[in-house]
Design a protein that fits this description.
The chain has 138 residues and is mainly beta. The chain contains 1 helix and 8 strands, in the order H-E-E-E-E-E-E-E-E.
Length: 138
């Protein structure tokens, strides 16, 4: 995974590795991702396209809607259990993040919406469930 360590001036100049949108403090935080201009593949935090190995990537804003692909509960390095989930975003890329709610209640196929683009402690996106789970009713 690529971790950007450039200066603030480079990030403000339009770096493709940014997570938060540097424009406009009045808008809600947004997740940015890259799309290959040659083959159209969407990706998150990459230097090269994983499909065609192209380096010509453009930055786009995600709508913030996605589906939980996989979720697991972790009990280490934290006082309480927390979940770590793989979220497939509507734009076609997959991102690792945390879904708010009881860790045992988050399952594959649940629809989520971006809540915060970056968790201040772990530095990963935080999502919330779009629909309340009605698993007890089915």
């Amino acid at each position: 995974m690529y971790h950007h360590s450039g200066s603030v001036a480079q990030q403000a100049a339009g770096s493709t590795a940014g997570v938060l949108d540097p424009r406009g403090k009045d808008r809600a935080e947004a997740m940015l991702f890259q799309r290959c201009t040659w083959c159209g593949t969407a990706m998150y935090h990459r230097l090269l396209c994983p499909v065609c190995q192209g380096g010509d990537l453009r930055t786009e804003r995600s709508e913030g809607l996605g589906t939980v692909r996989h979720s697991t509960v972790l009990h280490r390095n934290t006082p309480a259990a927390r979940n770590v989930s793989l979220i497939e975003m509507a734009e076609g890329f997959v991102v690792r993040g945390r879904v708010m709610g009881p860790p045992i209640g988050i399952h594959g196929g649940d629809r989520v919406r971006l809540s915060t683009a970056e968790d201040p402690v772990r530095g990963e996106p935080v999502f919330q469930l779009v629909d309340e789970p009605f698993r007890a009713w089915t």
